[in-house]
Amino acid sequence: MNFKIKRLELLNALTKVSRAVSIKSPLPVLTGIKFDLKEDELILTGSDSDITIQTSIHDNIEIIKTGSVVLSSRYILEIIKKIDSEDVHIFIVDGTLTRIEGANSRFDLNGTSYIDYPRIDLNKTGVNLQMKSIDLKEAIEQTSFATSEKETRPVLTGVNFKAKDHVLECIATDSYRLAKRILNIDSDISFNIIIPKKSLIEISRIIEKDELIDLYVSDRKVLFVFDHVLIQTRLIDGTFPDTSRLIPDSFDYSMSIDSTSLLNSIDRASLLTNEQTNIVKLTMNQDTVILSSFSQEIGSVEENLSRAFYKGEPLKISFSARYLTDAIKSINGQKVRVLFTGEMKPFIIKDFEREDIIQLVLPVRTY
Prior knowledge:
This protein is α+β, with helices and mostly antiparallel strands.
């Protein structure tokens, strides 16, 4: 293997694939990045066996001799970051010993044989869905935060992607809150899968521009293809709970308010709450809407939401300040509607003008 390449081109590609590499992998070869130099391209692969990221470089590269090697993700990334040169020259000196040369620097890095790297099937098979990458990125950001951190119910640690009748629903829940994004799709396809949160976060980070992205959905994995990048992730086994019955159809009470104003009030009201519970209370009637919190050990706060418009009979409801904050931030709209059905029933947060994002929060009993 012997090639010359623009440093920034290589750095950008290494940064992408290194996201899939786990330094703590039980298989030592998977702590590295596989370099596969072909006649017309350099293919870089990183994997931790749950998620695999592969990208290829065709431009700004001079291929002198084809070949393959696996180099430590940690060290090759740091070398390419810090080497003070516009171009770098990388070649195998002996066996797997690889030399990286810049204008004034020379590094010799011990590699591993590419033969030891697991064979990863990145074939484009399964049900195909094409969508805008920005829609996917948005859907991930609007749902993944609501997944469960606990491994006791693995299905809740991922986001449920369900396609049917030209509609794709992305749903996440930790059983205390729920986030749902609805997307219209051109394809009349159906699948029902659970994608791990970690994989989705990495996909979201790699998406940089609005382009078309292809999804290939199989029984045990899903492959994302866009802009010379392939990302394959395993799926979580199991059946995602039917959450449709949790979302109420009608509401007896509603509050409309400017998002920033509500977020600032929640921030202040939660200053004196217990960090573990983080509970605040809304007391609402036609004339006033009060957001408050009380802690016997710390003290109390009261915020008058003068910019809120409330409709319905008087209502008091307590909930996690963090959950409501996360929900409003994910909607990312100027104004939100908060819809209630009762004191101890789940309530909904929606964008004032959009119906495709639904956030649900469970109230907390405070007496």
